[in-house]
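FAD-binding domain-containing protein
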Amino acid sequence: MRDVLIVGAGPTGLALGVDLARRGVDALVVERAAELFPGSRGKGIQPRTQEVFDDLGVLDALRAAGGPYPVRMVWKDGERVGEQPMFDPVPADEGAPYTEPLLVPQWRTQEILHARLVELGGRVAFGREVTALEQDPEGVEVRFADGTAVRARYVVAADGGRSVVRRAVGVGMTGESVDPSPFVVADVRVRGLDREHWHAFPGADGTGLMLCPLAGTEEFQLAGKLPEGTEPEPTLDGVRRLVAAYTHLDADDVTELRWASDFRPRAALADRFRVGRVLLAGDAAHVHSPAGGQGLNTSVQDAYNLGWKLGAVLRDGASGALLDTYEEERRPNAAAVLGLSTGVHRGQVRRGAATVQLALGYPESSLSEERRAAPAGVRAGGRAPDGVVAGVRLFDAFRGPHWTLLGATTTAPGVRSLPAAPASYGPGLFLIRPDGYVGWAGDTETGLDAYLTRVGLR
């Protein structure tokens, strides 16, 4: 029996696979398709996700493959009429070294995560379509279209907004339409546009077309909002007609179509994130408008939150009840980000400080223990900022599947100690979770051992 079966080899499933592989958890990723997703859809990697990818060992490869967001160039009647930044700048400091989104096509992000998974000894089984599952107190049996089955202690549904696993366990989704207009997104090669700008061609009726150069490729991502009632055509001829209708380019300036899809933006949240030994993550748990680049990033955060908890239960002896904190922490977080994505889509929220995800945390979580009499600076449940202690960069100290204790020493296995916390944290002792949030903070070590026991470290 496997420890974990992850259904879906998108960014969520692959990130979780990487995290579990480095923890020595026997996890298998299965994917219905014969290969990784070929499109650019989720192309924005927010600063908080860059911190996650730094920890997972893939940030350097992503930086080499991607680039910064280009400035938007607005066109009208074949003339350039002005430039607009895509987001408000967020100043970097010692605690937050990454403050600008990174633009990487989703297919390339998945290739890099897959390569890291294989490097760590994990793998993806392609062409494995889930048709049914059945769970009991000891595990879950998952059956596939080819007649085979796999049994695992836990199953994670990372199989997208139309999740077969979510439906199999009877979990509904509650949501709303964000925009009644149909949208087309495609990866294309186009002649006649520079690659230094994100080219915007607004229509007079609120519709329009945008062409964003994809770093590391010769392609642009095309995103088009069409009039209500229009039937999208995600084909080469259909895309050529859109380009000819909305821009000064000719139809034959679109020389190649790599991938295309159509959709109507909606926001939806799963009613539950856990049913027994089945857990939902990524688009299987929440579906976003693509505006603001929140969907992929929120999904990776799901995986990062769940990975250490599965590891603690399966390898460190923590109680299975620890997994209840996954829904406790991630569902409210996803609900908040859904509202944010919808606000960006409707022009109510600006891209910038609100969308970089550095302020997200779990202050209300049952895993967040703030025991200081007069807490200042960083609080339990908050993101643990970067900094330097005794010549050691904190993000270097945090990197890996362990916990980190700042301000004291401990003999607990799986915990690295540093003699102090940076001044920006405020006075006290701080226990940093493997996913980079403060789990416990105190004036003294009183209560620390009890917390370590609760999370399987004693």
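thats it. The chain is about 25% helix and 30% strand. The mean pLDDT is 95. bye
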